[in-house]
Amino acid sequence: MTAPPYQVLFLCTGNSARSILAEAILNQEGGGRFKAHSAGSHPKGQVHPLALERLRMAKLPTAGLHSKSWDEFAAPGAAELDFVFTVCDRAAREACPSWPGQPLAAHWGIPDPAAVEGTDAVMEDAFRLAFQQLQTRINLLVSLRLESLQRFCLQQQLQDIGRTADQARAVQHRLADG
């Protein structure tokens, strides 16, 4: 008998870039073990065109991706969530709704590529970097033997995954500066 997929929600403020990227990556990389969703506390109403372009370049499906409010995942009758990940600092600081299912939560902060200004190349590079950081974290999540971990240990693993890219970014900055 096949277990139902783990329900995962990625949150950010606008739900136009990072959370959308994460949703698409996990739905592809999760191999049917995960069903990813994304939402925002103040959704922009549209997906950033460079997020869609980055997903197309990675050959990931974009059909059905849209900017939506986190309210629909907290409404009566919403699917019970197993995991909730905030991918931006603003959403991590906001008072989140009560999620059905008492999901495990962790903060996986990623700089907002949609906030980057500059040339097309600079903006595309910001989306590429955000995509890579999310893909790394999601691959770590997918590699976990979730069914064999106790809730406390799993919570710690999820938080550690969020710190992994932060530590890597700090090393990259030190190498670039020195």
Please explain how this structure is put together:
- The chain has a single domain (6-177), classed as Response regulator (Rossmann fold).
- It contains 6 helices and 4 strands, in the order βαβααβαβαα.
- It has helices at 18-29, 49-57, 71-74, 89-93, 120-143, 151-177; strands at residues 6-12, 34-40, 83-86, 104-107.
- A 4-stranded parallel β-sheet has the order 2-1-3-4.
- Strand 1 (6-12), helix 1 and strand 2 form a beta-alpha-beta unit.
- It is globular, with a radius of gyration of 16 Å.
- Residues 171-178 have low confidence and may be disordered.
Given as residue ranges, the uncertain stretches (5+ residues, pLDDT < 50) are: 171-178
**CATH fold label:** Rossmann fold
* Shape label: globular
Quickly give the structural class.
alpha/beta
Strand elements, count: 4
| Number of separate structural domains | 1
Please identify, by name, the CATH architecture. 3-Layer(aba) Sandwich
Q: What is the end-to-end distance?
A: 54 Å
Topology, please?
Blueprint: E1 6-12, H1 18-29, E2 34-40, H2 49-57, H3 71-74, E3 83-86, H4 89-93, E4 104-107, H5 120-143, H6 151-177
Helix pairs in contact: 1-2, 1-5, 2-5, 5-6
Short description:
By secondary structure, this protein is an alpha/beta fold.
For the structure shown, list the relevant keywords.
Rossmann fold, disordered C terminus, alpha/beta, 178 residues, 6 helices, 46% helix
